[in-house]
Design a protein that fits this description.
- This protein is of the alpha+beta class.
- The protein has three domains: about 90 residues, Roll (Archaeosine Trna-guanine Transglycosylase, Chain: A, domain 4), CATH 2.30.130; about 90 residues, Pseudouridine synthase (2-Layer Sandwich), CATH 3.30.2350; about 100 residues, 2-Layer Sandwich (Alpha-Beta Plaits), CATH 3.30.70.
- It is about 25% helix and about 35% strand.
- It has nine helices and 17 strands.
- Strands 2, 3, 4, 5, 6, 7, 8, 9, 10 and 11 form a ten-stranded mixed sheet that branches.
- A hairpin with an 8-residue loop joins strand 3 and strand 4.
- Helix 2 runs parallel beside helix 5.
- It is globular.
């Protein structure tokens, strides 16, 4: 990080020092979503299990798709904008309407790697606008009859069902997605995800006086953002009250910062590592280094008040 000022930080506390009750307000859980409920319903189950007021998620999975789902707790819901570019990995089964050779399928799949155009399906809640998504990998694993096992690594917001349909159209035989599982979401894999029953068990043990299991499942939002390498700015103690009540962050209030361009969305943190706000940069880091005054970051969402 680029250091602008020397300062002794006194306000707030390190995220690692939070008690579990406080951690529930600034936490993240990696859930292994089952087939059946929608993403919204799964997040709602987490809310009910933990007796919280609010939960959110960072990537929609259809009711018949399982796998890694990042669930945000309480105040952490406001950080969802920082997760929108997470790359997703999937394993799935597509069914061809007519059997083809392995070579034909493999060659066609390779042609879909790169930037493609997609329009969200009618059932989707988002605007039905044509958009570009990048397919990093679309790989053949094995084939049995007309069914093809595949893996895909794609941009967030890519519709795998639509990708399978378009593959079938290209091959001239038709195809549909039969099964799908998300194995990775951003930096998180299925090895880190917990099933809902384990969360229920951990909360019951917590209600009986032991925090250990639940504490292990819930991650601090700051640790998650660090793993994701989200760009950050460290604010001076004297600026914390004003920015946590909605004021923008001026150049004199910045103690340290990563390198960034104008127009980027990043996190504003205390010197002890707590996230305070989400903001959009009005100046690049280079411009801030060469300035003594001016508004550097437009505060868009307040996560933590001081």
């Amino acid at each position: 990080m680029i250091k602008l000022l020397k300062e002794k930080f006194e306000k707030g506390k390190k995220p690692a020092e939070r008690g579990l009750d406080e951690k529930l307000k600034f936490g993240v859980i990696i859930i292994d979503k089952p087939i059946g409920p929608t993403s919204h319903e799964t997040a709602s189950f987490v809310k009910k299990i933990l007796h919280l007021g609010k939960t959110g998620h960072t990537g929609t999975l259809d009711h018949n798709v399982s796998g890694v789902m990042v669930v945000l707790l309480e105040n952490s819901c406001k950080t969802a904008v920082l997760f929108k570019n997470n790359i997703k990995n999937y394993v799935g089964v597509l069914k061809l309407e007519r059997d083809l050779s392995e070579d034909e399928v493999k060659k066609a799949m390779r042609l879909f790697v790169g930037d493609i155009y997609q329009k969200p399906p009618l059932a989707s809640a988002v605007a039905k606008k044509l958009r570009i998504r990048r397919i990093y990998e679309f790989d053949f694993i094995e084939k049995k009859g007309s069914r093809v096992l595949f893996k895909a690594r794609v941009d967030a917001g890519t519709y795998i069902r639509t990708l399978c349909f378009h593959l079938g159209e290209f091959l001239g035989v038709g195809a549909e997605m039969e099964e799908l599982r998300r194995t990775e979401s951003g930096v998180f894999s299925e090895n880190q995800a917990v099933i809902l029953q384990k969360l229920v068990d951990a909360y019951w043990i917590y209600s009986q006086g032991s925090e250990k299991k639940l504490n292990k499942i819930i991650l601090n939002i700051e640790d998650v953002l660090k793993m994701m390498k989200v760009k950050r700015v460290i604010a001076s103690d004297f600026a914390l009250h004003s920015i946590s009540t909605g004021a923008d962050l001026a150049v004199p209030g910045i103690v340290e910062m990563d390198e960034f361009d104008k127009g980027e969305v990043l996190g504003i943190f205390t010197g002890k590592g707590e996230i305070v706000c989400i903001g959009k940069t009005l100046m690049s880091s280079e411009e801030i280094l060469n300035s003594k005054k001016g508004i550097a970051i437009d505060v868009e969402r307040v996560i933590h008040s001081f």
